[in-house]
Amino acid sequence: MKDELTIEEAADFLNVSRSYFLDLLKGGAFPIRFMGTEKRVLKDDLVRYKAQVDAQRRKVLDELTAEAQELGLGY
């Protein structure tokens, strides 16, 4: 398994578009390393980011589910 991924590989790993991933990079979400002119990111950084995003999504979904149950919407 590769330790560093190209921009395209990283976007595929996160299941986002290349342009969205580039916006994440511009926002400082990941440190980047240049190999010649090609940008690379560490796979460990992507794994941590994905875990954080997944945890945030689960929290929001749990909150929405609890609210739907309180309102008797059948969830």
Give a written overview of the molecule.
This protein has helices at residues 7-14, 18-26, 43-70; strands spanning 4-6, 33-35, 38-42. It has 75 residues and is α+β, with helices and mostly antiparallel strands. The chain has a single domain, classed as Arc Repressor Mutant, subunit A. The chain is elongated, with a radius of gyration of 17 Å.
What is the topological layout?
Layout: E1 4-6, H1 7-14, H2 18-26, E2 33-35, E3 38-42, H3 43-70
Antiparallel strand pairs: 1-3, 2-3
Helix pairs in contact: 1-2
Number of strands: 3
Structural class: alpha+beta
Could you tell me the radius of gyration in angstroms?
17 Å
Task: Give the overall form.
Answer: elongated
Mean of the pLDDT scores? 93
CATH architecture: Orthogonal Bundle
Order of helices and strands: EHHEEH
Largest sheet: 3 strands, antiparallel
Low-confidence stretches: none
Strand % is 5-15%
Short synopsis of the structure:
It contains three helices and three strands; from the N terminus they run βααββα. It is an alpha+beta fold and 75 residues long.
Provide key terms for this protein.
3 helices; elongated; 75 residues; 3-stranded antiparallel β-sheet; alpha+beta
